[in-house]
Amino acid sequence: MILLIYPPFAMPDKPYIGLPTLAAKLLHDHIPVTLWDANLSCFQQLLAPEAVARGFNESKARLRQLDKQPTLELSELTEYFSRAVGMGTVETDGVLEIRDLFSDPQLPNRERLTLFGRYLMLVNASNFREHLGMTDNTGYLRYNGPGSPFSTSDLIRCAKIPDSLTRQTCHGELKTLLKTKGPDMIGISVTFPDQILPALILASMVKEMEPGIPVVLGGAFVTIHMGNLTNTDLFSLVDYLALGDGEDILSGLYAHVKDKGRTSDDVVPVKGLMYCNNEKIVHTGGPRVFPMSDSKAPAYGLLPLDEYLIPPKTGAMLFRLSRGCYWAKCAFCNSCSPVINAYDRQALETVYEQLMQTLDVTGCRIVHFTDDAADPEMLCYLAGRLIKEGRDLNWTVNVRVDTRFTLETLLLLRKAGCFSLFLGVETCNDRVLTLMNKGTNTRIIDQVLSNISWSGISANIYMIVGFPTETQIEARESFETVQHWMKEGLVHQV
User: Fold this and answer.
1) Nearest CA-CA partner of 113 in 98, 128, 94
2) For residue 84, what pLDDT is reported?
3) Average per-residue pLDDT in the chain?
4) In the 3-class helix/strand/coil scheme, how is the chain assigned residue by residue?
5) What are phi and psi of 242, to 5 degrees?
6) How many CB atoms lie within 10 A of CB 316?
7) CB count, 10 Å around CB of 294?
8) In which band, very low, low, confident or very high, does the pLDDT at 434 lie, cut at 50, 70 and 90?
9) Is 249's pLDDT higher than 70?
């Protein structure tokens, strides 16, 4: 059996798509799998009512000890608790449920995220080495731990810190899983930079509890940032690094481990791996690219869907229509990686059927498609099927500024339930757009944004500041244009 782990720290509002996608293919290959969302387990403890109340009281006590007046944020916390939860202050004996923030229809999403950030500030009240917070404008959760996530020596040193948040919150459940499930192999998927240290702490804990179990570290962060690793000391914490898509890597490695076990002079006939053999790092090629035609519907049923901050019936589920970007030429992007430039998608009918399977399993009616750049042709097919079959679905997706997004096309998407689009505009200057190799210009951007606005879909745009040779004047002019768009209602969020 393979135990697949999603590490802290990411937003615990919904399950991330990586592990369910991996698990679906492994189960199809008759490999038993257990999924553990350690991120969810971590936050269930950090945000328990008693933990929040303790943090609140410790914050006040520390301020009194320092003879300082409460900061504006801290002085407003009691009001936040009372208004958001309706149970008085945290000093009462009432039970405080963080999930109430995300189920209250009267609270705007931006206010929910602001309040959630306040709670994170509380649970960090007595912790000076690690910090949890939110970026209020985007809703991204941020974890700042000791050392740098891009320094291997820092990561190795900090993975052994005995009182880290990850150890405090995950030790007990990890120990129970290792004892009750008896996995033959463990895979830890690292999506974001903030997760790499917690992932290595989990790996370190496995090595302390059951040193004979092979640990594989993979995911987007490993593929993009660790493919040129030279420090062999990292392999005291993990046995293998998986580069690229993990489906074939884990299948092949599982068969090898079951047959040969794990030895110091191991030679592994699996592509896409890095491991240490006789004090030298071995590369077996990669990153691997798994054909979308062989993908299965994500195995969300292996996760406790009702335990996330947002229940599946009211929250957005993640689903992937395609892999990579069909443009893959932008100068600032990691377009040399096959994760980006090996654009692939399933047959349109197959991807639709798998989407319907996912909706049936999860009971979800809001979907965030995770594509880097969804193709308009594919979205039109999806929209047509949803309308024809009378499916009630609300959805959002990342797209390019593409001339194929005509008003007619966007009206079709809106009718099929599309409520917002995310677009990489980056700059409003034609000279800089040319240097970026975006394949667009300001005329096309204006037209596409106008079409989106007229269709009734919200446009959320990404911008880049400080692209090489961009002047301050060009940057200011770009953002004056963005401010105009927002004032005119062409852009919802930047």
Assistant:
1) 98
2) 42
3) 87
4) CEEEEECCCCCCCCCCCHHHHHHHHHHHCCCCEEEEEHHHHHHHHHCCHHHHHHHHHHHHHHHHHCCCCCCHHHHHHHHHHHHHHCCCCCCCCCCCCCHHHHHCCCCCHHHHHHHHHHHHHHHCCCCCCCEEEEECCCCEEEEECCCCCCCHHHHHHHCCCCCCHHHHHHHHHHHHHHHHHCCCEEEEECCCHHHHHHHHHHHHHHHHHCCCCCEEEECHHHHHHCCCCCCHHHHHCCCEEECECCHHHHHHHHHHHHHHCCCCCCCCCCCCEEEEECCEEEECCCCECCCHHHCCCCCHHHCCHHHCCCCCCCCEEEECCEECCCCCCCCCCCCCCHHHHCCEECCHHHHHHHHHHHHHHHCCCEEEECCCCCCHHHHHHHHHHHHHCCCCCEEEEEECCCCCCCHHHHHHHHHCCEEEEEEEEECCCHHHHHHHCCCCCHHHHHHHHHHHHHHCCEEEEEECCCCCCCCHHHHHHHHHHHHHHHHHCCCCEC
5) -105, 125
6) 18
7) 11
8) very high
9) yes
How far apart CA 4 and CA 51 sit, in angstroms, is 28
Rg (CA), the chain: 24
- Tell me which amino acid residue 69 is: Q
Supply the pTM of this predicted model. Answer: 0.89
pLDDT band (50, 70, 90) for residue 310: confident
Amino acid at 38: A
pLDDT digits 0-9 by tens, 68-126: 544 434 445 555 554 444 433 344 343 446 777 677 677 777 777 777 877 787 777 66
Q: Is the dihedral of CA 110, 113, 117, 123 positive or negative?
A: positive
**Residue 327 is encoded by which pair of tokens?**
């443009």
For residue 12 the two structure tokens come to 């615990």
- pLDDT tens digits for range 341-370: 889 998 999 999 999 999 999 999 999 999
Token pair 């995770």 is found at: 370
Question: CA 24 from chain center: how many Å?
Answer: 19
Give 384: exposed, middle or buried? Use CB within 10 Å, 0-12, 13-18, 19+: middle
The mean per-residue pLDDT over the stretch 173-182 comes to 96
Residue 168 sits at the vertex; the CA angle it makes with 167 and 172, to the nearest 5 degrees, is 80
Please tell me the distance from the alpha carbon of residue 186 to that of residue 202, in angstroms, as a whole number.
Answer: 10
pLDDT (0 to 100) of residue 244: 92
